[in-house]
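Sample A.
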Amino acid sequence: MNPVLWQRIEGALVFAGAIALTGVTQPGWPLWVWPLALLAPDISMLGYLGGARIGAVIYNAAHLYANGLILALLGLLTGQPTLIAAGGIWMAHVGFDRALGYGLKTSAGFRVTHLGRIGPD
């Protein structure tokens, strides 16, 4: 099977697991918080205002599974369910992006990712 397809399947599974983790640790979040929190890492796209190279670095830094995992682990270690949920929603965002084929960016431009080119050619 194609490695890109494996990464997209992995992203979908991470998304599902991370949404479940978030729901279990923060069941009281108002409904409007979910989409805002889920889209928050995309603020990193503003890095592209500084050019493709800087944009890719900032975007990629915000789109690593490790960031959400570290945040969730910090929440677990300190007994703060809100941090666990924030880490979960961050991992969910990254997983969803990967499942849709939005990978880590290259300095060649926003549409060129490690999972292939995004959008029409």
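Sample B, a different protein:
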Amino acid sequence: MTSEDTSFPNVRHLFRRQLISVLADLRLAIVLLLAIALFSISGTVIEQGQSLEFYQSNYPEHPALFGFLSWKVILVLGLDHVYRTWWFLSLLVLFGTSLTACTFTRQFPALKAARRWSYYTEPRQFQKLALSAELETGSLNSLSQLLEKRRYRVFQEGDTLYARKGIAGRIGPIIVHASMLIILAGSIWGAMTGFIAQEMVPSGETFQVKNIIDAGPWAQPQIPKDWSVKVNRFWIDYTPDGAINQFYSDMSVLDNQGQDVDRQTIYVNKPLRYQGVTFYQTDWGIAAVQVQLNNSPIFQLPMAQLDTGGRGRLWGTWVPTKPDLSEGISLLAKDLQGTLLIYDPKGKLISTLRPGMATEVNGVTLRIKDIIGSTGLQIKADPGIPMVYTGFGLLMVGVMMSYVSHSQIWGLQKGDYFYVGGRTNRAQVAFEREVIEILDQLNEPKSPVEVPTVGVQSLSSQNYIN
């Protein structure tokens, strides 16, 4: 083997060490974290998963928002689905790799060093400590007892002593890093396997989740196929002044045989959850109106939302009053409280009706039977959420553990002198007070032992006799 052949492993080893050193650099981790935060904010500000028409109308090219942010820029960069773009996922993976490198190159060695005890055998070693003292009184046994009362773990060998406490403070950063890795893994898993759907379902209808507006590449198994949902009833509670107070949906989850397996009433901030899929109450509308002409069968006409130019919500439909559809009237409604406006073909208001009422129009009796509302649902599945919640729980535990001080104290009995010193990684003032209290207790003079009078007399008599 030539010298060139042996140099390649050395070069690869050197490159690997340099790469790990770069990945474990705290500055790189901070830059990556700031970049992730910045793009996460953009994903919150810019609406995600909307249609092309939405972005074209809200982010035109002339004038572009901030001079550069137009619908084309948003689509090219993937800002309409930030959390599923390759570059955002790459940032998460790179940040996770940096955390892993830092954990193995810094945190684990620091924990290993903290768990390893070492003794100071020379007085000069105490001079390197930020807090040390040289005493003419004291002993290792008395120091050991004082430290054990303060929950130190004491190791003693011959004339040397080592004590420590707060090892949890060294474990805390490792738990913080592990929790952040769990959060990143949960975010990536949710982005790859989750989906978002929207449905507008009339009251009384059964539906399956089909209107997917955003989904990860591995989301198909999460989309429910062996069960469906029925909207048993949708209704709105109004305030005395006519404003909407809350809207509700009584919903049932049905199996393949159409049997109820779960039933709940949902409203805003109280969703339905079933097998990892969550149904949120987000919108409402008017789906149809049931009418009867003279003694005809009751028929249901769909109602469409009209463009009012931002002056409120309004739904309308056309009702034929002749069999050949040559004449008819328009029905308009603005809410589910039941009042409908009837207009002739010339746009003149003929009458107002509520369900159960009737009126004469174009020679026929028009009776309003009912107004059918529809519930607007946003449907989400994110299998990564349990991992994210677990990560945040561990993160809080790790942060609290990181605030625990790791304190170390050494002792040495050398001739007539007794040396004590210590150091800590945080709460320096509290540690100094603790060490000073220990030194004061070691310096306290021992009270003389009082010999009972009877014993003295007995001893004197014995000496005298002898």
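Observation for Sample B: Confidence is low (pLDDT under 50) at residues 447-466.
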